[in-house]
UniProtKB/TrEMBL annotation:
It comes from the Bacteria. Residues 757-828 form a coiled coil. Gene3D superfamilies: Immunoglobulins, Winged helix-like DNA-binding domain superfamily/Winged helix DNA-binding domain, YVTN repeat-like/Quinoprotein amine dehydrogenase. Keywords: Coiled coil, Membrane, Transmembrane, Transmembrane helix. The chain crosses the membrane at residues 727-749. This is HTH luxR-type domain-containing protein.
Length: 937
């Protein structure tokens, strides 16, 4: 895709130049040769430090075994990368890990002088690969190297169509044919010049470029190419030449950069250190597969984006300031910046921009209305007449100017403080008329809806307001505030698309719903696929530019208002050059659109906008996969052909679970963003990002599929890899663990059975012990019951003994009383009572007193009750008499002295004497009570 601007009005706008400094690519300054891989589209550079590889995202350097400077590089159709250096040439191929490995061919060269030769040029031909030094030409074919001896020192062998041509110093131009060097007749004069380029011209002609001039050779005559071009070459010394496209040429010089011309010699562009290149000394050039021009310089590498429909004007010297507005009027192009209003006469495109007097300061707006240019300035509003400025309105801050559809002869303007109205005078010129009463606020955007209401966007972030003006436009009759929190929290842009009022912000696109009278978050159908919109720039009802929040720009064509018929194309423009919050895209004329940038502007051809994204875009490349903790484990990929999804291509140990994946896409002039999805790890696709590296951390063992796509197409790349489990978590180890688990389970089961049996034994023993205790308890209870019964019997016996004892006592007492009464009666009666009767009665009384038989009976009962008290007493005190035992028994029964005396039929005095004697025999102290001793005994 090429824009043939030639010497048109905008010829001072040039293709974009991308600079790659040595700090960026990580090698030396000089780049001597450039080539491109046909399959991968990677770029290769012969650098003084080594071979440079660029995949669109990252640079890699490969050094020769002896660290020589790489002077030349060429890639054949099979992907072999040939390089030449001092006393060295060979080729590079990727090894199993994808890293380029060098294979030297110098062992095939028999000439010892080769070690001192620099291989400056490599040419891949159908008859083999030619490696050329100044003195020799070496042909490599079918594993052999053949040395060709030219008729003198040569500069460069070059192929023009099917001819191999070279200059022999001091002799002229030669053709190499069938290993023979044939002089081109009439070229002897070229031997005295330095021929640096040979290029095809037309169908049969050849352009021959020397340091001093360019000649056109038609097979018989040598004619100068173009006078102006030759003057330029004579002054700046031509060093390289390249045919680009079908009708253009690029010439690289040693002193003044690159000159691009048409086939007939018309100069299109000049690129040098002053307008974009890093350096003006061109050492090499190469056109890539997309038609863009790579330039190897004495300091750095530059890329001229010839394939883009966009041309740029860049203020390299920073003389103009930041561009806020742009307009074309008559033959002038005007730039409104933060430093003033500048102009350029388009009939003299090489002339510089100049400041219009009295316009110093901030220019906000330029509008061409009915053939007049009005300038909104921080000091007011001017009418620009050629290169002069006339102040129309002193109200400061002319932000936006809009023609009213219902009043075509009147304009309304938003300023720092008021709304201003302009109208035409009798001569048809715009003049300031009045301000609108009832409104006072800064207005940076203004639109009119289909009902005639005025919508204003108040700065900063004060919300939107809808105004209904009076018929004479002098006052506000009604107003409605739309102070949505979203409008206050985010920077909002107001625009009208067709009949719809839209407000865009970081929170989404909101449309004014006439039915509800509110802004609703409901994008129009054709905008549903556009996310995070910052601003809309309608060119017409069916064409508009969409600026997204990340700075990316797309061009949308609507098809009958239906989304399915709409087409959106990415505009390849840098996303970091917008004027924040004052972005502007302005139609300059019927054929061009301008985009304001911080240091200039970009120019787009409207005719080529529908063709922005033609052609098939390849899927992105997963360039490398590296274990973060083990950088030596690095797998490089050259293209998608190396990916296999059926089986894991890559295998990493569990200790390499942190992986760094690098992406690339060999589209060198388009802003590329990537989105990825790691199957079996992440759930959805990531958001598009310009980052070309992604680190995946702590991946568990398993198989993963990394899916990758770019913003340029939906083409997808997939790479399968695995994280191996540790040795202790393999299939065999798992089987072993299962067996061990089964054995452990069996062991635990047996142990459980043993424990159950032991528990049962313990329970049985406990039950037996419990039964034993219960039985013993029962026996004790029985014994206790028996004891109680015995005690009850003893108590009963004791009671009976006591009763019998009392009975004896009472009987003895009664008998004694009878005996005493009998003695008294005898004493009273004297002899009147017969003696025999008295004796017989007295005998009966004596015989009925307690006898020895009574005592034995008492003793037997007493022993039963008191557990053989008398027996134990005799055992402990064998010297006790029978009388002592009787007394002890009576004392045991707690009988009184009187009662004992009656039982023993003795006096009280005798009982006391017995007690004394018993105490003495028992050896009791005087303070011990004898009765208590017997009771406790």
């Amino acid at each position: 895709m090429h824009v043939s601007v030639g010497q048109d009005s905008y010829s001072f706008c040039r293709p974009e130049v991308t600079q790659f400094s040595r700090q960026l690519y990580g090698a030396y300054n000089q780049t001597w040769s450039i080539s491109q891989h046909r399959q991968s589209q990677f770029m290769y550079f012969a650098n003084s430090k080594g071979l440079l590889e660029f995949d669109g995202s990252s640079w890699r350097l490969y050094e020769l075994p002896r660290k020589q400077k790489v002077r030349s590089v060429a890639v054949d159709k099979n992907g072999r990368i040939y390089t030449g250096a001092l006393g060295e040439f060979g080729y590079w191929l990727p090894n199993q890990a994808g890293k380029l490995t060098y294979y030297s061919l110098t062992s095939l060269v028999r000439d010892k002088a080769f070690r001192n030769e620099e291989v400056w040029n490599i040419l891949v031909t159908p008859g083999g690969v030619l490696f050329q030094s100044f003195a020799y030409i070496y042909r490599y074919q079918q594993g052999k190297v053949q040395t060709l001896h030219p008729p003198g020192n040569v500069l460069f062998v070059q192929q023009v169509r099917d001819q191999l041509l070279l200059e022999v110093i001091d002799k002229g131009l030669y053709e190499l044919r069938n290993d023979a060097f044939l002089l081109v007749k009439g070229s002897e004069f070229l031997g005295r010049e330095t021929v640096n380029t040979l290029l095809p011209a037309g169908e049969k002609d050849i352009l021959i470029g020397t340091e001093q001039a360019i000649y056109r050779y038609d097979g018989s005559q040598f004619k100068p190419f173009d006078a102006r071009v030759n003057v330029f070459m004579r002054q700046n010394r031509l060093n390289r030449g390249l045919k680009i496209g079908t009708d253009r040429y690029a010439f690289g010089t040693l002193l003044n950069g690159v000159l691009i011309t048409t086939a007939d010699g018309r100069i299109l562009y000049r690129f040098n250190q002053k307008n974009g290149l890093q350096n003006s000394t061109v050492l090499s050039m190469r056109q890539d597969a997309d038609g863009n021009l790579w330039v190897g310089l004495d300091r750095g590498i530059d890329l001229i984006n010839l394939n883009s429909p966009i041309r740029y004007f860049t203020d390299h010297d920073d003389n103009l300031g930041t561009v806020y507005a742009i307009a074309r009027h008559a033959n002038y192009l005007y730039l409104g910046t933060n430093q003033g209003l500048y102009y350029k006469l388009l009939t003299r495109p090489d002339s510089p921009f100049q400041l219009i007097p009295e316009t110093q300061g901030q220019v906000w707006n330029l509008a061409v209305l009915d053939g007049q240019l009005l300038c909104g300035h921080n000091r007011g509003t001017f009418r620009i007449e050629g290169v002069k400025a006339r102040l129309l309105c002193p109200i400061t801050g002319g932000w936006v100017l809009h023609r009213l559809s219902r009043y075509p002869d009147q304009l309304i303007q938003g300023t720092y403080t008021k709304l201003c109205v302009y109208q035409k005078d009798s001569r048809g010129q715009w003049l300031f008329s009045h301000t609108v009463d009832g409104f006072s606020a800064p207005v940076r955007q203004l639109e009119e809806d289909e009902t005639g209401a005025i919508w204003v966007n108040k700065a900063p972030n004060q919300g939107l307001q809808r105004l209904r003006l009076s018929a004479d436009l002098k006052r506000v009759e009604a107003s409605t505030e739309y102070a949505d929190p979203v409008f206050q929290q985010a920077f909002v842009n107001l625009c009208r698309l067709g009949t719809t009022i839209l407000a865009t912000s970081a929170r989404g696109v909101r449309r004014f719903d006439v039915g509800t009278g509110r802004f609703v978050l409901a994008p129009m159908p054709f905008l549903q696929s556009e996310l995070a919109i910052r601003k809309l720039f309608p060119l017409s009802d069916d064409e508009l530019f969409i600026l997204r929040q990340d700075g990316a720009l797309s061009f949308l064509q609507r098809g009958n208002g239906h989304r399915r018929n709409s087409t959106s194309r990415e505009v390849p423009i840098q996303s970091n050059q917008w004027v924040d919050e004052s972005e502007a895209i302005v139609p300059l004329d019927s054929g061009h659109v301008a985009i304001c940038r911080e240091n200039g502007f970009a120019l787009l051809s409207r005719a080529e906008l529908p063709q922005l994204a033609t052609g098939t875009v390849r899927s992105p490349i997963i360039r490398s996969v590296t274990a973060v903790d083990d950088p030596a484990t690095n797998q490089l990929f050259q293209d998608q052909q190396q990916y296999r999804q059926a089986e894991p291509m890559l295998s990493f140990s569990h200790r390499q679970a942190d992986l760094l994946v690098t992406f690339s896409m060999p589209y060198y002039t388009r802003p590329i963003k990537y989105s990825y999805w790691l199957e079996n790890s992440t759930r959805t696709w990531s958001a598009y990002s310009a980052a070309y590296q992604k680190e995946f951390s702590n991946l568990p063992p398993g198989t993963y599929v990394l899916h990758l796509r770019s913003n340029l197409s939906n083409a997808e790349t997939a790479l399968t890899f695995e994280i191996r489990p540790p040795w202790y978590w393999t299939t065999w180890s798992k089987l072993l663990y299962v067996l061990l688990l089964i054995a452990l389970a069996r062991f635990l089961y047996q142990l459980h059975l043993r424990r159950v049996a032991l528990k049962q034994n313990q329970v049985r023993e406990k039950l037996e012990e419990k039964l034993r205790h219960q039985e013993e308890e029962s026996q004790r209870e029985i014994i206790l019951l028996q004891k109680e019964q015995l005690e009850q019997g003893l108590i009963q016996k004791s009671e009976e003994l006591a009763n019998s004892t009392m009975t004896l006592i009472q009987k003895n007492e009664l008998l004694m009383q009878l005996k005493d009464e009998l003695k008294q009666v005898r004493g009273q009666l004297g002899n009147r009572l017969p003696t025999d009767h008295f004796q017989r009665i007295n005998y009966l009384i004596d015989t009925n007193l307690s006898s020895e038989q009574d005592w034995k009976l008492f003793e037997a009962n007493f022993n039963k009750v008191h557990e053989q008290f008398l027996k134990h007493l005799i055992e402990n005190h064998p010297d006790l008499s029978q009388g002592d035992l009787k007394l002890a028994a009576y004392l045991r029964m707690n009988l009184s002295t009187k009662e004992i005396a009656q039982l023993l039929n003795i006096t009280h005095r005798s009982v006391e004497l017995k007690r004394y004697r018993l105490r003495k025999k028992l050896a009791l102290d005087a303070d011990i009570n004898l009765s208590e001793f017997m009771i406790k005994y």
